[in-house]
Design goal:
Layout: H1 9-20, E1 21-23, E2 30-32, H2 42-46, E3 53-56, H3 64-68, E4 86-90, E5 93-103, E6 106-114
Antiparallel strand pairs: 1-2, 3-4, 4-5, 5-6
Length: about 120
């Protein structure tokens, strides 16, 4: 005896289609159903995510022996020339260059250029 209520593979297909399309009962034609609008503007949400902005002065490659010899009066030469722009990093990724300025009682940075940050993607 055959169960008339059993789901067939075509029933599953129609269920999947019903999520995305409406079948015209009279003509049997398929019509696209407009997708619901997203409830949140993703770029707007992304603007609120905190990031860490750092200004990298430079770096030096030294041996462990040289590291062990470093003391309070030691000077380690960096790989950046004096007066050269410093690297701006966001969460460790370089995005541009800047110079150090005084902002009130704190140091600040004056942006020279932004190469690695696509700010247009974040525009509304």
């Amino acid at each position: 005896m055959m169960n008339m209520n059993a789901n067939t593979p075509s029933d599953a297909l129609l269920e999947d289609l019903s999520d995305e399309m409406i079948i015209d009962q009279v003509g049997g034609e398929l019509h696209d159903v407009p997708e619901p609008k997203p409830r949140r503007d993703l770029p707007q949400m992304m603007r609120k995510i905190p990031v860490t902005l750092t200004l990298e002065v430079g770096s030096a490659r030294i041996s462990l022996q040289e590291l062990m010899a470093i003391g309070p009066d030691s000077v380690v030469e960096l790989d950046v020339l004096a007066g050269e722009p410093l690297v701006i990093k966001v969460n460790g990724t370089a995005i541009g260059r800047a110079e150090v300025v005084v902002a009130g009682e704190n140091y600040g940075l004056k942006v020279i250029d932004l190469d690695g940050l696509n700010l247009d993607m974040m525009a509304p």
